[in-house]
Design brief:
The protein is of the alpha/beta class. The chain has 16 helices and ten strands. The chain folds into two domains: about 140 residues, P-loop containing nucleotide triphosphate hydrolases (Rossmann fold, 3-Layer(aba) Sandwich), CATH 3.40.50.300; about 190 residues, P-loop containing nucleotide triphosphate hydrolases (Rossmann fold, 3-Layer(aba) Sandwich), CATH 3.40.50.300. The strands form two sheets. Strands 2-3-1-4-5 form a five-stranded parallel sheet, sandwiched between helices.
Length: about 400
């Protein structure tokens, strides 16, 4: 995801650049003014609150603004990112946006400031006033607006300088040159993005074989709690012996073991374009753990896919696997198979539903030949990688 804030005084050309960037990078445009007008036009509760404040001559509070921004973001779960035009406008709003981004499991990549001297800003706006007929494009009003802008914006720019997310661009040059500079900055930001896929599905849905094949095709690092833990078992470590006992009774591996193993892999991506997670998160607790682990390493979940296979087919597959060298410990009996399926239903389905509240979970038909399922998966992953990079 690419989230950027575009700054600049009136007349800097933010509108022109925003229109291009939104189309070029498939971003959702967020302007507080436009959002307020949209909410008021739709007669929403937030819109009516804002209308009453404006009618009384007041300023719309940060509390209302942040609710409208959060609503816009959550209503666009499949967006490739968001472009904030002129927001945050104050130091306080910068903190608000930071907190909102954390809540929504994302972050602002950078702030780009189109810098132009005051005299150029004034001359541009006066020329605009000659053609647009806008009454506020006169020199007195313009200089008042510029003074207010600089008083409020300097602390915001410093906030992002301190975070290492600030970029200054000379906005006095031709539109194309400014645009090229912005694109170079954003392309570098996109290069930092890892594509992280979470693959859900009941035991027997084919997550393991499909996930491994997808990882190979798209240059992702395959992270499966099962395979990592089996390495511990094969090496007869203390963790391996403990886990063996749990598997025999169909229990889940403790989260503290899973966390240590996954963090070790995240810290050493080995040049992969991202990660594919199979077998985690299995519980709501693990979903928060994974989100936190990814954020710690400057990343997040890019795509969530759920392989859908009918229950009877799952049982048939697991029973057939129990007679091969690929059998899992919980394949040992029908009772263990049923217990494992029930465990997925009670503990993992709520995780999928949690993600559905804020983003798209793509459900793919997991029946058919391996090649057929792989083709369906590949199409979704390819489209997801295209929009996230």
């Amino acid at each position: 995801m690419l989230n950027i804030a575009l700054f600049g005084p009136p007349g800097a050309g933010k509108g022109t650049q925003s229109a291009y960037l939104v189309e070029r990078f498939n971003l959702i445009y967020i302007s507080t003014g436009e959002m307020l007008r949209r909410e008021m036009g739709a007669g929403t509760q937030l819109g009516e609150q804002a209308r009453g404040i404006i009618a009384a001559g007041g300023l719309v509070s940060d509390e209302i603004i942040v609710q409208i921004i959060e609503k816009t973001i959550t209503e666009n779960p499949d967006a490739s990112g968001f472009l904030f035009d002129g927001f945050p406008r104050t130091f306080v709003q910068a903190y608000i946006l930071d907190g909102l981004m954390i809540k929504l499991n994302t972050s602002l990549n950078c702030l780009i400031n189109l810098h132009i001297p005051e005299d150029i800003s004034v001359s541009r706006l006066l020329r605009r006033g000659e053609t647009s007929g806008r009454l506020d494009d006169n020199e007195t009003v313009i200089r008042n607006r510029l003074r207010e802008y600089h008083e409020k914006t300097v602390p915001v720019l410093q906030f992002y300088r301190d975070k290492g997310q600030h970029h200054d661009i000379d906005g006095t040059r031709p539109v194309e040159e400014v645009r090229d500079d912005i694109i170079r900055i954003l392309e570098k930001e996109l290069e930092k993005n890892l594509f992280n896929l979470v693959l859900f599905g009941y035991p027997g849905s084919g997550r393991g074989s499909q996930g491994f094949a997808i990882a190979e095709k798209f240059g992702l690092e395959y992270i499966a709690t099962g395979s990592m833990i089996h390495e511990e078992i094969d090496n007869n470590t203390a963790i391996g012996r403990e886990v063996t006992e749990m598997y025999q009774t169909g229990e889940l591996v403790p989260d503290e073991i899973v966390v240590r193993l996954i963090e070790k892999r995240l810290a050493n991506p080995k040049g992969a374009r991202g990660f594919i997670f199979k077998g985690i998160p299995r519980t709501l607790v693990q979903s928060y753990i994974l989100d936190s682990l990814l954020r710690k390493h400057g990343s997040g979940i890019s795509k969530i896919i759920n392989l859908d296979v009918p229950v009877l087919e799952l049982v048939r597959r697991l029973d057939a696997r129990s007679h091969t060298d690929r059998r899992m410990p919980y394949d040992a009996s029908t009772g263990n198979i049923v217990k494992r399926l029930k465990e997925h239903e009670t503990k993992t389905i709520p995780v999928i539903n949690k993600y559905r509240q804020h983003r798209e979970v793509v459900t793919i038909d997991g029946t058919g030949t391996f090649e057929q399922v792989f083709e369906r998966l590949s199409a979704v992953v390819e489209a997801g990688m295209h929009t996230s990079r």
